[in-house]
Amino acid sequence: MGFIWFWLVAIMLVAYVVLDGFDLGVGILHPFLARNEQEKQLMLRSIGPVWDGNEVWLLAGGGTLYFAFPLLYASAFSGFYLALMIVLWLLIMRGASIELRMQINIGVWKSFFDGMFFFSSAVLAIFYGAALANVIRGVPLHEDGYFFLPLWTNWQIGSQPGILDWYTVIGGVVALIALAEHGALYLAVKTEAQLQERSRNLARRLWVLLFVVTLVSLPATMIARADSLANYKAYPIAFLIPAVVVLALLGMIQFSRKGADHKAFACSCAYLTVMLVGAALGLYPRLLPSTTGSQYDITIAKALSGPHTLHVGLVWWAFGMCLALVYFVVVYRMFRGKVSLEGGGYGH
Amino acid sequence: MDAMLLHRIHFAFTVIYHYLFPQLTMGLALLIVVLKTIAIRHKDERYNQAARFWGKIFAINFLLGVVTGIPMEFQFGTNWSQFARTTGGVIGQPLAMEGVFSFFLESASLGLFLFGEKRLSPWKHWGAAFLVFVGSWISGFFIIVTNAWMQHPVAYAVLPNGAYEVTSFWGLLTNPWGLLQYAHNMSGAVVTAAFVMCSVGAFYVLENRFSEHGKIFLKVGVVAGVISCLAQIFPTGDLHGRYLAKHQPAAVAAMEGLYRTQKGAPIVLIGQPNEENQSIDNPIVVNDVLSFLIYGTTQAEVKGLDQFPRDQWPAPLPLLFYSYHIMAGLGTYFALIMLIAAFLLWRGQLFQARWVLWPLLLSFPLPYIANTAGWMTAELGRQPWIVYGLIRTSEGYSKYVSASTSLFTLLGFMGIYTVTSILFIVLVYRIIDKGPATGMSKSVPTLA
Any idea where the domains of chain A sit in the sequence? Predict the structure, then answer.
């Protein structure tokens, strides 16, 4: 049961990163790609009908985590208190700026909301990357299963780290660049002409950065958590994961050069998925490792809910996910194709 | 500073602000379905224009409901981690189900409703509106199930590690408390939507702009209003009150300000609880009514607070007393004004009756206050328990999150919500000022 729920929660969080990732990416690129009001609107319109559905994966994944692993939810959410509150504020700012920009027709306000959209998207990406890095590095858990991390201490990864240290900052930078790349490849799929050309160009330039930071992140992880390869060594087939990461990276640039935008975007989805799966595999069966001694690690066994809860949960979860898939297929099919301001691509 | 108090205020402030939006969208979703149905059945384009107009107001409220709702789910973990840890196996379930069954449905169907009118046939577009309604009412159901378990825990067992687990999933979903509370709460949401719709309608009629649409709003709003306002008192409020008296007698005693157990207990209409003397100052009372309301006979004995140990009294008691009285007083006013308006509508005189249109125009904030006061009654009445009879509130909050950290983020939320409130008011005012467009709407909301 614990094995199943670990991977179900992981799948939901991967779905969140892959889906909300591209609209965060569009937000990060918004000030750099769009040259005029028309292009700004096109970029927003490309995520307009889907961004909040994508965000639902965060809520549904969070809820699933809550009932499957209550101890983890309680410990991590109270321990990362400050970071999570900042994430909440950014989510509010971001949602408001997307909606309000379309509603208010005053230039100054539009610029203001553009800035807010960019800022909140970029900082959210950094925080998500840093969050994952925090989980990999571990936190100073107390005997009772709780901890509380300040935003930063001395930026070192010792036994009493902060939410931000050199390793988690690297995690944040990887996420920022990966999601920007993801967004650029998405825009290449959804737009035409100059905007598409600029998206492709930017995707190619970002790719170099992404390649470098991805390579840096691997040895950094070894330093931050020496035993993160234990599962890999036990099951050497798992070393396919880093191989797929590299393949996906190479695929992105190759397909993008050929103008095969859909395939390049698919490679980016694969890249994000495999990076996250690789991290999850490194953790398993831990959920939140401790920097204060492995006896305090929060493991699946420690955090798992009661058996009846989990059995019933499996039934409605499977049913609910099938429904969710149907909705997503319907919405994405309805709004498929290139985005445009007049009729055509989007019904309005 | 008292950490528990700050965590309570943190949750109270964010949830009260959050619920300003869903109470409108849940009620409005139903009224939009009504507008769409009339539009199709009577082939009346004005009703489609009305539905589109309210769709825009719905979209803004929905967006704010979503972004202010995420902090609610998070706060179980951030500020109430002890509670989350022990009860996650029970209440994590309906919370996750809300996401899986309701939010996906809502976001998908709202996208189709707002963006898809040109692409969908009229009945399919009606279907999108209907699914928005279903999604939002399912969402409300799961939240009520969650809260009902805290009010009246059922179908649970305690695991060896002290955590709670569900023993019967069906029992959790059909908690009698939850069903009563759901009926009362959803009818309360319709009251809010009906008053808001009447208010805009009265504005247009009094102002003599878009008065054709204004009359439609008044018609639909008054009919929905009179039904929901009466249902709010009877049967939903009445049944909920009796059930409350049976299972949370201390809460009822505190709500009514009944310090001493007595036969033929009076009902206090107005007064101020005096905590030192344990009595009500400046009371206006009607004898025997409380006994009658709870037990159906005027001489029944009603338990006062003196029957309960001091450490089980809800606190702060005066706030609970006032919340309950504000809710009940406003509820009575709603039923009266809506009955008068419905009578005039039936006689064909409502649109000329300025003496009723003016109160309808001005009353739209009151259902928000009443719904908030109702929830404060439920939540303060539950104190000092976070799960009634099982876990005390003092055992629920995050011990490692200090009072000053909680205050820091509370202030942050206050700042952000001040900004969103200003923007919200400006936007809604602009939509109302522009009025229901004739013909297809050109402005496209981005929200899906």
Answer: 2-334
For the entire predicted model, the pTM comes to: 0.94
* Mean model confidence pLDDT for chain B: 93
Q: Cβ contacts (< 8 Å) between B96 and chain A: which residues?
A: 60, 63-64, 66-67, 313, 317
List the single best residue of A11, A75, A78 to mutate versus B (max B Cβ within 10 A). Answer: A78
Name which of A62, A78, A298 is nearest B397 in CA terms.
A78
Minimum-distance CB partner of A44 among B97, B104, B446: B446
Provide the residue ranges of all domains of chain B, joining segments of one domain with +: 3-245+320-434
Of A59, A147, A331, Cβ closest to residue B111: A331
Q: How large is the ipTM? A: 0.91
Cα–Cα dist B320/B383, whole Å: 10
Over residues B339-355, mean pLDDT: 96
Q: Show the low-confidence residues of chain A (pLDDT under 70).
A: 342-348
- pLDDT tens, position by position, B374-427: 999 999 999 999 999 999 999 999 999 999 999 999 999 999 999 999 999 999
pLDDT at B446 over 50: no
Per the CB < 8 A criterion, the answer to whether A18 and A273 are in contact is: yes
If you average pLDDT over each of A282-291, B360-369, B431-440, which comes out highest? B360-369
pLDDT given at position A342: 62
Q: Are B163 and A305 in contact (CB under 8 A)?
A: yes
Distance CA B184, CA B176 (A): 13
Kindly state the percentage of chain B with pLDDT values over 70.
98
The answer to whether residues B194 and B222 touch, using CB atoms and an 8 Å cutoff, is: yes
Q: Which residues of B touch A309 (CB under 8 A)?
A: 89-90, 93, 165-166
Q: Is A147 on the interface with B (CB under 8 A)?
A: yes
Axis-axis angle for helices B317-346, B176-207 (nearest 10): 50
- Distance (Å) from the alpha carbon of B118 to chain A's nearest alpha carbon: 6
**Considering CB atoms only, which of A103, A148, A305 is closest to B401?**
A148
Which residues in chain A have Cβ-Cβ distances shorter than 8 Å to B99?
A: 56, 59-64
Confidence bin at B158 (pLDDT 50/70/90) = very high
Which residue of chain A comes nearest to B165, CA vs CA?
A: A306
B70 with A305: Cβ contact below 8 A: no
The answer to whether the bond into B316 is cis (omega within 30° of 0) is yes
